[in-house]
Amino acid sequence: MPYNVADATRDMDDLIVRPARVFKEKQGIDVRIEHRVEGIDPSGKTVTVRTASGETVVVPYDKLLIATGARPVLPNLPGIEAPGVMALKNLEDGRKIKAFLRDQGVKKAVILGMGYIAFEMCEALRARGIDVEMIKPRPVFIPWMNEQLASMVKKELEANQVRVHLGQPIERIEGNENGLRLICPGVQLGGDMVLVAVGVRPNSELAEKAGLALGPDKSIAVDSTLRTSDPDIYAAGDCADAFHVVTSQRTWIPLALRANRAGWAVADNVLGAKVELQGVAGTAVFKVFDLEVARTGLSVEEARKAGFDPAEAVIQSRTRAHNHPGSSTISVQLVGDKKTGRLLGAQMVGKEGAAHRINAPAVALHAKMSVEEFSQSDLAYAPPFGPSWDPLLTAANQLLKEV
Ligand SMILES: Cc1cc2nc3c(=O)[nH]c(=O)nc-3n(C[C@H](O)[C@H](O)[C@H](O)COP(=O)(O)OP(=O)(O)OC[C@H]3O[C@@H](n4cnc5c(N)ncnc54)[C@H](O)[C@@H]3O)c2cc1C
C-alpha cells in the first residue's frame, strides 16, 4: 500500500489479488463480505454474525478458523479522531489516504511512530513532494536495532529532508481550518495530515470472550498445528502467536509469510493431515529511501531478556568486490551466545544486498547453527554481488573472537 500511495496515478484496487466473487465462482467458497462475527459459542459450535443490513445470523461450524488479523494502535490522545488523522491498515484506509492527499492538496504531514509502516509511508509521502516530520515519545530511534546501524537509517531520513523528533511526548492534537497541530512540550509541529503508525495489536477479543487461551501481547495461543485451547478452533495470522525458533518461547510477530503459511497449514489439518509449523525467526526487511534494512532473530537486548549471554560483532564491508563499479557500504551486525557459541541474530543495512542476504542467517537460525558453523558456510561470490568473503562471513569471523 505505501508504494501505491507513492504514485498518485495508481488505483488502490490494483492491489487486489483475487476479488471475493472469484472465490465463489472458481472455488465454490461461500465468502461473505460485509459480515462481522460478533461472538463465538464453542459449546454450541456456532458463530453469531452481524450483516451489513444489521441482521444477526447464527452460523454453525464443525471446525472454526479465527483469522481476524491485527489493527493499528491509536494512542489515547485528545484530537486523535480529528479529520486528517489517519492510519493505514487496509485498502479502505489506503483509498481514504489517497483521496485526502488529492482533495486537500496536502503539503505537510506528520508521522507518529517509527516502525516499518511509518518509514514506508514517509518515503511515499516524500515521493509526492510532501514535507514530512516524524515524532515518537520514546527517546530511542529503533529500539531493536544496533545503534550504529540505526544511525545510518536516521541519516538516510535526514538526507531526504525528513525531520526526526525523538523523546517527544504528545499531549493532544488540535485541528482548525489551517490544518492540524501537535501539542508537545518540546517541539512545535503541525501539518495538513497526521499519520498514526505506532504499531498494531491482535484482534483477539472474540477468542478471549469465548474463553480461549491467550499468548504474548494478547494474541491467541496456538500449538504447532495452529490449534487453540479448543480442539475444534484454529487461529492463524496476525491474531495468533507463534513459537520462536531461537528463544523456544511463544512470541507474537505479525508478518505476512507466517499468516499465509499458517492458513495453508490449518486447511491441511482440518482435512485430517498433521502439518506442524516450526515457528518464526522474526525475519523482516524494509526499505527506507535508498537503504535496505533487514533483521532476523534476536537483538542483543532481546537475547539477554531471553536468558542468553550475548556478544555482538558489527562490521562494515562492501556490496560488490573491491573497485567494482557501483560498490557501496553494507553494515552487518551478528549476535551470538557466549555460553553455547550459538548464532542468535543478524541485522543489516545497505544500499543493496541486505534484503536477500538476511535469508542466509535466517536459515542458520532455523538450523540452530553455531557462529563457527555459520562462519564455515559456503556462500556465493562474484564481483558484482560482494567481496570474496561475503560480509556475513566477515562478521561471523569477528564474532568468533567473542563467543
Ligand atoms: C501498510 C502495511 C504494510 C505491510 N507490509 C508488510 C511487509 O512488507 N511484509 C510482511 O511480512 N508483512 C507486512 N504487513 C503485515 C501483513 O499485511 C500482515 O501480516 C498480514 O496481512 C496478516 O494477514 P491476516 O490474514 O492474519 O490478517 P489481515 O490481512 O489483517 O486480515 C484479517 C481479516 O479479518 C477480517 N476481520 C477482522 N475481524 C473480523 C470479524 N469480527 N468478523 C469478520 N471478519 C473480521 C478483517 O476485515 C480482515 O479482512 C504489512 C501491513 C500493513 C498494514
Short description:
By secondary structure, the chain is of the alpha/beta class. It has 11 helices and 22 strands.
Walkthrough of the structure:
It is a single chain. By secondary structure, the chain is an alpha/beta fold. The chain has helices at residues 2-5, 20-27, 91-104, 116-127, 147-159, 205-209, 256-270, 300-305, 359-366, 371-375, 391-400, and strands at residues 35-41, 46-51, 56-60, 64-66, 70-72, 85-86, 108-112, 131-135, 163-165, 172-176, 179-183, 188-191, 193-196, 200-202, 233-235, 242-243, 250-251, 284-288, 291-297, 310-318, 329-337, 343-350. It has a five-stranded parallel beta sheet. A five-stranded antiparallel beta sheet has the order 18-19-22-21-20, with helices on both faces. The protein is globular. The two termini are 42 Å apart.
| Helix content bin | 10-25%
* Biggest pleated-sheet summary: 5 strands, parallel
Query: Would you tell me the structural class of the helices and strands?
Result: alpha/beta
Could you say which overall geometry the principal axes of the C-alpha atoms support? globular
Mean pLDDT comes to: 97
Strand content: 25-35%
The side-by-side strand order for the widest beta sheet comes to 6-13-7-8-9
Ends: how far apart?
A: 42 Å
Ligands bound, unique: flavin-adenine dinucleotide
Number of strands: 22
